[in-house]
Specification:
mainly alpha; about 0% strand; transmembrane helix; membrane; about 60 residues; Transmembrane Fragile-X-F protein; flat; transmembrane; about 65% helix
Length: about 60
């Protein structure tokens, strides 16, 4: 018996949502702005940056005398 690990880097939910929104936009089903169509790609990064910024502000405020 061999102990092998399977590491799957499949398609994430954000990529699937982007492809669905892209198809809907290109077929004219939705008339959303391209910002919203591409949001599943960039929104997680924005959320992380905002959370890091808020964490830095909280840490900075806690260090004040």
């Amino acid at each position: 018996m061999s102990n092998t690990k399977s590491n799957s880097n499949g398609i994430g939910i954000g990529t699937i949502l982007f492809v669905v929104f892209l198809v809907l936009k290109l077929t004219g089903v939705i008339t959303w702005s391209w910002w919203w169509v591409t949001a599943p790609l960039w929104a997680p990064a924005v959320v992380i940056v905002v959370m890091l910024g808020l964490s830095a502000l909280i840490i900075k405020a806690a260090d004040r005398p």
